[in-house]
Amino acid sequence: MSICKMIKATFLVAALFGASVANSEIVIVVHPSNAAASMSAEQVADVFLGKSTALVPVDLPESSAVRKEFYQKVTGKDVAQVKALWTRLIFTGKATPPKEVASGADVKKAVAADPKAIGYIEKSAIDGSVKAVFTAP
């Protein structure tokens, strides 16, 4: 296989993978005992941007495509803007950043273990250990 064909194949695979992540449905999940039946995008954004301390946010790594999509869809901000916001909040002592875990499975475990936790995962990962309260548009 020539170098040119290998490069084209690599780009095709990357494009297909990127499209599947970009089209995934992201749901916001809470502990099953949480009284909320649903939440608005604004309520979710307030928690993940440090404006509300009603729940404890659980985040994916900064490099995660799901994280990028979540922040863009729910807060209207990209990961760099969110990082800058949290840097200011931490520096001024006004808030504690979201707990960061390695994967969607870890988000689900953390939320299932803490009645005050909130996180986001792909809809396909939902099970009875967590309760969905919002689906990102």
Automatic annotation (TrEMBL):
**Signal peptide range:** 1-24
Q: Supply the alphabetized keyword list.
A: Signal
Q: Which superkingdom is the protein from?
A: Bacteria
Protein name as catalogued: Phosphate ABC transporter substrate-binding protein
The record lists the organism as Steroidobacter gossypii
